[in-house]
Design brief:
Helix content: 40-55%
Oligomer: single chain
Number of strands: 4
Structural class: alpha/beta
Strand content: 5-15%
Length: about 210
């Protein structure tokens, strides 16, 4: 099991391994896999601002109720500096910021971003409508899978959970690729590769 940084997930070596995994899946099934990997699906500035506001409010309380007298003139400057420090600190510490994200909001934003990528990458343009988008957002540590109408999502339910687990707590590229390759056997029964099957969508991941 290998744990890699977000930057390593976008490396040339990682892209090559994902490409090979997609080709392996498509050698077993008529389904077409497209992998999109993004650093983040949102800037989440609202989280930075909330943290900044909380820090600023805490500093204000300290200034107001500190037993030592503090000049009122310096309070606005101290509060503004505290707000800026809290905002910058939150934006700079990814694990801390990620822990503050609201799960429901993250799910909605990931779902919308994945469906946008589904359209942008032309996943719906296969002959038999058997495209599957695997959307990975590394900052949020989330995976969203969008199948076309010709694919029953129940066919790869276990594999989808394995993909999500590989990304959720650590960016485990080996586990991710292992789960991705399992899509081949999972789909081969209902969507076998035909003799005239052609590769309609790129195997290489799209990284943005």
């Amino acid at each position: 099991m290998s744990r890699v940084s977000e930057a390593a997930f976008f490396s040339s070596a990682a892209k090559k391994r994902v490409t090979e995994a997609v080709a392996d899946v498509e050698s077993r099934t008529s389904a077409e896999i497209v992998v999109v990997v993004r650093h983040a699906s949102g800037k989440w500035r609202e989280v930075d601002l909330v943290v900044g506001a909380v820090v600023a409010f805490g500093v204000l309380l300290i200034l107001l109720f500190h037993p030592m007298p503090i000049a009122v003139e310096v309070m606005p400057v101290d509060v503004v500096l505290a707000f800026l420090a809290g905002t910058v600190l939150c934006s700079s510490i990814a694990p801390f910021k990620r822990a503050l994200l609201v799960r429901k909001t993250v799910s909605a934003r990931l779902r919308a971003a994945a469906r946008e990528a589904f359209v942008d990458q032309g996943v719906s343009r296969t002959r038999r409508r058997t495209g599957i988008l695997v959307y990975v957002s590394t900052f949020e540590r989330r995976v969203e899978i969008v199948p076309d109408i010709g694919v029953d999502a129940k066919l790869f339910d276990a594999e989808a959970r394995a993909l999500a687990a590989a990304v959720a707590h650590r960016l485990d590229l080996d586990a991710f690729l292992e789960a991705l390759r399992r899509f081949g056997p999972a789909l081969s029964g209902a969507l076998p590769r035909s003799a005239d099957d052609v590769n309609e969508l790129p195997d290489a991941p799209v990284t943005v």
